[in-house]
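Re: duplicated header lines in exported structure tokens

Our pipeline writes sequence and tokens for each protein into one text file. With two proteins the header for the second block appears twice in some exports. Here is an export where it did not happen, for reference. First protein block:
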Amino acid sequence: MTNLPLPRPLPLSPLETTQVDKQLFLPGIDEFMRAMPNHIARSSLFAPVAPGRKKTHNETVLVSRSDAVITFSGVQLDEAQADVWMQAIHEASKHELGKPVVINSAAFLRAIGRAKSGDSYKWLHRAFKDLAKGLLIIETFKAGKLKHSIGKTRMLRMIDEFSYDEITEEYSFSVDPRWSALYANREFALIDWEKRLSLGRVQDMAKAMQRLLATSSDERQAFNLDWLKKKLEYTGRMRDFRAAIARAMEELLRVELITKWEIGKNIKGNDKLTVLVV
């Protein structure tokens, strides 16, 4: 495995409307929790897609809510890579943003619930490379007015300055300080890490739904099934998607992340998923 050099960040353009903090403050975060910005968790940036079905995005506008427009270039990211990114952010939150974060590869695999093996080390390296190469433009809105514009004049990466030392088996990376704006004002989903790691390895849709449900404090949440199918990048038939969602909901019931779920109709007659969250 070899280093993947990336260009050093340019100064932040004054055209980018966002506040940058040096430290990523995540209030209310315990060691068994991880965090992801709400706008990222609600989008299709990470999705439960199989490795052989990944597509390459080229300035693709992702599925998200109407209060955000997120454009992505890079290889489709999956739920396992969501685990890698959340753990990387967790490690970076202990340091000044933009500064190198050094981690041991074996310890990192352990932290995301992966066994140490040759295949796991290769998989982790590919996951980091895909994250390092992904480019984002994120615009968020409040009451119809632009709130954040990040990446238009200098694209935003999931991780920066990524490298690997084959002798020490350590990774080094940094996190762009602009990410702090998307975590500000507690606008992030709190992910129960222990329960996430207890979800089955083939339950990526359950992992995706855990992230989505965590973006709201509402006990009762409902989602249009057509929108949910697009957000989860499910390309099969709707009846197959309903079955897949049912399996995911039963898995979330098993680990006690939700208490009840059902698929019914909304007032317009469209299929919707309703979930009662713990």
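Second protein block, exported in the same file:
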Amino acid sequence: MKEYDIVGEIRRFVLESGFNRRDESGDFWFDEPMLGFASARDPIFRDYKTIIGDFHLTPPEIFEKGSEGTLTEGTVICWILPVALPARETNRVERRWPSLEWARTRTHGEEFNDRLRKHVVGILEKQGYRAVAPLLTSHFRSIHDARVGLASTWSERHAAYAAGLGTFSLSDGLITERGIAHRCGSVVTNLVLKPNTLRRKNPRGNCLHFHDGSCGTCIGRCPTGAIDASGHDKQKCKEYVHGTIPVETTGRYDVHVLGCGLCQTDVPCEGRNPVR
């Protein structure tokens, strides 16, 4: 399999799968995906053990924990699923809670993302390769680290950065060429593909706040004050998203994972790279 085979199959699945459509309207949960590849031996994954924590697994580690055998050479296949316009438009006008369309995208859209992860693993295995979707293994878990706060054993955003798909924002999201309102996914495989060599050296390069100090819109968009000029308080964010929102909106939503996304909508980086 070549790079264009993987890109074409993931794009086909996203655009043709009925699971990427709302039942009531037939609209997409996600628009056409962005794809990127990183070498499984890229030194940046080892750097993440210092940047994030030594609990963060490298591609060979997560591969070897999730499948039989070792990984000497391979690829981290990464994708970005941009949230379609209907959910973004409805969430722009919200000030305290996510819109119903955004909440549905968070639940049903991520269910589709899991199907995509399984699909990519399946097509690789049919071709005789081994593959692991890190978030679907028992080795993926959240961690509260004394130094960095909330973290996990595998970060889809950091994998996407390694694959050249974007840089980080003041709110800790990943700003891609198509913005910050998206979901990420990845699969680690022993198939060797050509890595993306266009990764930004500045990990905050697409954020206007860090670029020239001209923006801080996400600060005002956060209803709980979890974002300020110094960065993002992940613990305060978690308490609001998983505690306050579900309690305060009981009975108003028909999904179980609501999300928030206010800092990802009605901001200059919502659907584009504002620095570009």
